[in-house]
Please model this.
Amino acid sequence: MFREQRKFPRYDVEFEVEYAYSDSTCSLFDRSATKNISRGGVSFLVHNIVRPGSLINVEMKIPGQKKILAALCKLVWKKDCDDIGHKKLGGLKILQMRTTDRHKLNDYICRLSNTV
Model:
């Protein structure tokens, strides 16, 4: 039986993200759009070369915010999507954010929760 492991509810919302990944064999900078977000994580399409467990620097362009929010994330899971080509849907856990960015993210998610 599947057991839900998320601590926070997710909200379906789409906004632009940019992410950077590198390991001993390659470096990657790419853009994507979120599928959903929570206080603890975010989901968006990631390149196939990024493996679960990888650390990824993510910049989020949250609607209504002029400042880009930056986070260090860990790719927790990936799954295939229909007709996406070289990308898969990824679930990322937010590991680190500046305090001011964390407050802005939490305020945004609070506004989302009030509209659902």
In short: Residues 69 and 100 are 9 Å apart (CA to CA). The helical segments are 99-115. The chain has a mean pLDDT of 90. The first helix runs from residue 99 to 115.
